[in-house]
Amino acid sequence: MKYTKFVALLLEDDDHETGFITAAHHLRDEGILEEEMHNELAENLQWIEENLPKRPDFPQDQDDLSSPMSWLKESSINHLQKMRNIQRILEENDILVEIFEVDTPGKIIYEDDWQVVALPFVK
Q1: 54: closest CA among 115, 118, 119?
Q2: Cα–Cα distance between 67 and 106 in angstroms, integer?
Q3: Are 9 and 17 in contact (CB under 8 A)?
Q4: Residue 18 C-alpha from the chain's centroid
Q5: Which pLDDT does position 64 carry in this prediction?
Q6: CB atoms within 10 A of CB 30
Q7: Structural domain boundaries of the chain?
Q8: pLDDT, tens only, 86-105
Q9: Distance between CA atoms of residues 21 and 26, nearest Å
Q10: What's the predicted TM-score (pTM) here?
């Protein structure tokens, strides 16, 4: 099975990177998008929020590379499509998005039908 993670590179005021969905919310709420693009982004975000269970909160490590990370399962076809729609809108507005696909996301500490949360393996 493949697992996919979307990462947005949007620096906030304190120079910390933010998550993909957080970056999408930021763009949606800025009021800079034309109405059609704003509505498309809002619809995709709403769909994700209604159809992707909220993962449990896990303690975050000081080192982001050791913190639990969410990954979509390859069987999450609709979720992945909505995330790609969001990706396109972010990139059209100069927010860089990276997509990672792996066979093994790390030590899985949470799983539902659509996603896993895993602690990365440390080399």
Answers
A1: 115
A2: 11
A3: yes
A4: 10
A5: 60
A6: 10
A7: 3-119
A8: 999 999 999 999 999 999 99
A9: 9
A10: 0.88
